[in-house]
Amino acid sequence: MIALHGIAAWTGPVLVGAVATRVAAGAPDAPLLVLAVVVAPLVALVQPRVAETPHVVCAAAAAVSATLVLAASLVPLGDAALLLGARRWHGVALAAVLALLLTLTPGRHGWRLAALAAGGGALLLVLGVLASGTARAPWDAWRDAAARPALRFGEASPWVTEGGWFARRTSLAFAEGHRLVAVTPGTFRVVEQEGASYVVRDWRLAAGDPLSVRPGDRLTVEAGSRVRFEAGKRVPGAASSGAVWAEAGAAPLATSVAALVTLVLGAIGLVPPAGRRAMAAPAALVALALGAACWGVYAVATTPDVMLGGSVAEPLLRLPEAVPRARGLAPVVALGLLALFVAAAGALRERVGAPAGSRGAVVWAAMLALAAVGSLWPFDPWFLLMAGLGFAAATIAAPRLAAGGGRRVAGWPVEAIGALAGGVAFVGVVVLGPRLPVALGAVAESPALLAAPAGWLAVRLLRWTRLA
Amino acid sequence: MVALTSLLAPLLLLALLPGAPGAVRVAGVSLAWWYAGLVGPVLAVGLTTALLVRASE
Questions:
Q1: Cβ contact (<8 Å) for B15 and A286?
Q2: Which parts of chain A sit beneath pLDDT 50?
Q3: DSSP class of residue A234?
Q4: What is the model's pTM?
Q5: Which long-range contacts (CB under 8 A, 24 or more apart) does A132-139 make?
Q6: Do B4 and A42 touch (CB under 8 A)?
Q7: Nearest-CA neighbor of A234 among A222, A245, A221?
């Protein structure tokens, strides 16, 4: 496998969309996330090669991780289909069937490189058109975004004209009074602060019914709801101004470290080491990650409401419509995301399908089907991605880094026992997560923080006992 | 691998230091973003390329 094939497992639509969305939202960890998205797969490329065929436990762990990552990558494609006027399942089914047909076609593998080049090329091409259409280089767009006195709904925003759509259940905090209009019937929960107490009101609205909220109110909107806002009002949930967006502060250290552990070890688990002459892979990674970050910056500079609906596909599809010269390019972006998904599926199939032997095709088809069905639920794709990477960190990367050196215990390779220990610890933290004390919040949020050391320690202890 | 991972440390340090040095603007863009968007990626690609070249020799 050449390095460019391998990094395709990393550059799926979910990661590109998540970087753009987090940058657009002014998330405190956005700069760290952008750099981690570049560095993590590069660490994986320079990892030592593993010669032997993985044990069935390690192969099963890789299959679970890959299924979660595939589901995470299918969610934005379903969202993209909805944003382009189709049904969610149209986008998911098209992507899953295309990936299945291409990955099960024997012989030819050139399509994987072509898909990565086409997907990345399409996104970077449209980004170039955005830069040209706004007449701003990315750093100029950053300065413009940071200088905005407030992030407000524009007159032409779909959230003002026909009504925006919430991809998943969302809670919005209002800093000023708003008058919303429900475009589709739905239930809206408003939490009003009255002195020191809170009053919860559930409003059942029909299409066209208005709802007024006051400063300090919190509104919970169910997935699939469509709402219209007033032009000129501040975008709820967004930074209060460009300066606040630019100086978003810092995420808690434990949260940042937990995310970094998950991303770096997850990449080691899913991205294979590079062979010789792998110089194009690092450049391609940097271009895609920084391109996604630039997308987020242009979003704040032109349409700061693109992250309101909670879809990681929205900044990528809505932004071209807001820039005159890029209008009509949203389908090109959607095709680019589809190509990136197909390339990612090819790379993940290589990681999972090969060890499964003759039953590989059946296992792979089942994984894609499971991922497709799972992605039809309004899951947060970032949650699915971090779950997949975290599981890979605990069951593949950590035991491998402990370097079992081919040793066996009761006929089992010590890496397989480490994978079991890491997997059990991961599932245990997920199950116990809500009951963990507040001080262990970072562990509950990123189970790999505890599960990866468990997998690593199991291998080291077994090595030590065998040597003793 | 350790050298590459340590490239992430300066951003954690910028967030920890008092006075929010990461928010200081240089040519209109914050220091954190200059590092995350330019210096860090250039160093990471350079280091990876050097490691891969050395491994292939």
A1: no
A2: none
A3: B
A4: 0.90
A5: A132/A325, A133/A323, A133/A324, A133/A325, A133/A326, A134/A298, A134/A301, A134/A302, A134/A323, A136/A298, A136/A301, A138/A294, A138/A297, A138/A298, A139/B27, A139/B28, A139/B29
A6: yes
A7: A245
